[in-house]
Amino acid sequence: MALRIDEMDRKILSELQRDAGQSLDDIAKNVGSSKTPVWNRIRKMREAGIIGQQTVLLDAEALGFEACFFVLIRTSAHESDWQQKFLGALKARPEVQEAHRLAGDIDYILKVRVKNARAYDEFYQALISEVRIHNVTALLSMEEIKSTVALPL
Question: Domain HTH asnC-type spans what residues (predicted)?
């Protein structure tokens, strides 16, 4: 049975999305509760898989990763073996921040973060040497207007 989420749970999740590094005391204060009930709710949501891995968001540009490419991939191969090889190649490449299988004319879209165009070309050359791809279109993001991992609770 799935865990039911109530308004207090949503407040807690919103606080965690805003800043997962804040103390339990601060979360409890911000949601209008005490520490123990908040901790119990967080624990239950972790156990239910609602709260997953906790991590830190890094500033890509401050670390020298100034180029973000959206890579559109069309393939003529849809066999299971090809797909497993392709997915393995994507998972092994740290430059790939996101990968989605799409409906429509494009089969896959990737979000690739690299230092510059030369680094993208190295990524591209490595990918096509590992997996047969029918068509690749790379789009360079000129400006990131909005980026969030927060869900609209």
Answer: 5-66
CA dihedral over 109, 113, 116, 119, signed as positive or negative: negative
What is the CATH code for 67-140? 3.30.70.920
Calculate the CA 95 to chain-centre distance: 12
Tokens coding 89: 């190649």
Sign of CA dihedral 96, 125, 77, 89: negative
Give domain limits for the chain: 7-47, 67-140
Which helix (H) or strand (E) segment holds residue 130: the answer is helix 117-130
- The per-residue pLDDT for range 3-26, each reduced to its tens digit, is 899 999 999 999 999 999 999 999
Amino acid at 1: M
- For 71, half-sphere exposure in the C-beta direction (CA atoms, 13 angstrom radius) is 26
Share of the chain above pLDDT 70, in %: 99
Q: Under DSSP, is residue 110 helix (H, G, I), strand (E, B) or coil? A: strand
For 22-61, write each residue's pLDDT tens digit. 999 999 999 999 999 999 999 999 999 999 999 999 999 9
Topology of the domain comprising 7-47:
Arc Repressor Mutant, subunit A (1.10.10)
